[in-house]
Amino acid sequence: MRLIYSAFCYKNLENKYVIKGSLDMNQKVTVIGAGNVGATAAQRLAEKELADVVLIDIIEGVPQGKSLDLAEAAPIEKHDAHLVGANHYEVSANSDIVIITAGIPRKPGMSRDDLLATNRGIMKSVVGQVAKYSPNAILIIVSNPLDAMCHVAMEESGFPKNRIIGMAGVLDSARFRAFISMELDVSVENIQALVLGGHGDTMVPLPRFSTVAGVPITELMPPERIDALTVRTRNGGAEIVGLLKTGSAYYAPASAAVEMAESILKDKKKILPCAAFLEGEYGISGLFVGVPVKLGKNGIEQVITLKLTADEQKALEKSAAAVKELVDAMKKMA
Ligand code: APR
Fold first, then answer.
1. Which of 137, 166, 195 is the last residue before a domain boundary?
2. Terminus-to-terminus CA distance in the chain, angstroms?
3. Which terminus, N or C, of the chain has the lesser number of Cβ atoms within 10 Å?
4. Catalytic residue numbers?
């Protein structure tokens, strides 16, 4: 798909010229894994006309069938994105972004960490191919356990840290926002929320930075209701797994991955909570942990450091320790 953006130029506060936006781009996003999350992400990317979409899966016929089905919906949905499905990576060559959803999802009773060994093997094989055919791509990792899979992607691709981004915080924050909206009976559009840390039971919802029309929820709800919503947010994935019984959530995870892709493709420079490789920020080094980052055409363009209270910092460090445990466990695997 040919997208023409109007780039614009302005002077910033330091009196320097800044060019924002891009001119005349052919954008291409590959989604690996044509299952629930991957196919839904492909659908949203195409319907928003963000890019041409390549869908890849290991199962013969599935990516081809789903991309053809989506292409046949295009006249009704009124978009001109090109969609193609394949079992090999040649067709994905020179993608701008690769969203990786390949892997097994959870079943009831499983934690995300139970997926570690299987999804590590899948991630290794997928990323090797991605790096070969799209050496300049920005990777958005979705497969779980998310933070550990980002480490595998970094190791296998050799890509710099700005081009490996984990999708977790956008989803966890969206869940928190949805629950706040249900609690206060107010539009989701008025709600901002922030969830940091790993994508697991130790994630850190931050009520202080979660607002309704700019007002922190700490001023709108009693502490016990906020606690209930943060617990529900931490268990948000398990709640869906418990209801579906045969797999895990996919509509909201796909939306979250596509919001990240959009910010990169359009160089919007949105601040979104994502898993990023930290080197000293928040006192954490050598680990992927969920923090607010600025997403633009170069991927992670900045890690935003917030001033945390002692309790918030402790919770973030506990979450980072849980990520480290998984990374250490992977080191012991063959
Ligand atoms: N290469 C390409 N695709 C693969 C590979 C591989 N090596 N291994 C598995 N797949 C594909 C499967 O064939 C399947 O179509 O990945 C797809 C996964 O789809 P689903 O089983 O529907 O799982 P989904 O719900 O999409 O979740 C995928 O995202 O949110 C996470 O925890 C979730 O790790 C899981 C991943």
1. 166
2. 42
3. C
4. 199
The total number of structural domains that make up the chain: 2
What's the whole-model pTM score?
A: 0.94
Provide the domain limits for residue 75.
2-166
| Residue 11 clears pLDDT 80, i.e. is over it | no
What is the residue whose two structure tokens read 């899979």? 149
Per residue in 115-148, is it b (16+ CB within 10 Å) or e — as a string? bbeebbebbeebbebbbebbeebbbbbbbbbbbb
One domain for residues 144 and 173 = no
What does DSSP say about strands 138-141 and 97-100: parallel, antiparallel, or unpaired?
A: parallel
Ligand 1 near 92 CB (within 6 A): no
SS3 (DSSP) at 85: strand
Task: Give the residue whose CA is nearest to atom 10 of ligand 1.
Answer: 102
Question: Is residue 215 domain-shared with residue 90, that is, in the same domain?
Answer: no
Q: Is 284:320 a contact under the CB 8 Å cutoff?
A: yes
CA distance 323 to 319: 7
When pLDDT is cut at 50, 70 and 90, the band that residue 7 belongs to is: very low
Cα(32) to centroid of ligand 1, in Å?
8
- Rounded to 5 degrees, what are φ and ψ at 332? -85, -10
User: Which domain-ending residue is among 106, 133, 166?
Assistant: 166
With residue 319 as reference, give the H or E element that holds it: helix 310-331
- Residue range 154-202, pLDDT digits in tens: 999 999 999 999 999 999 999 999 999 999 999 999 999 999 999 988 9
The two structure tokens encoding residue 51: 């890019």
Determine the residue type at 152.
V
> Does 40 sit in the ligand 1 pocket, CB within 6 Å?
no
Q: In this structure, what token pair is assigned to residue 319?
A: 């979450």
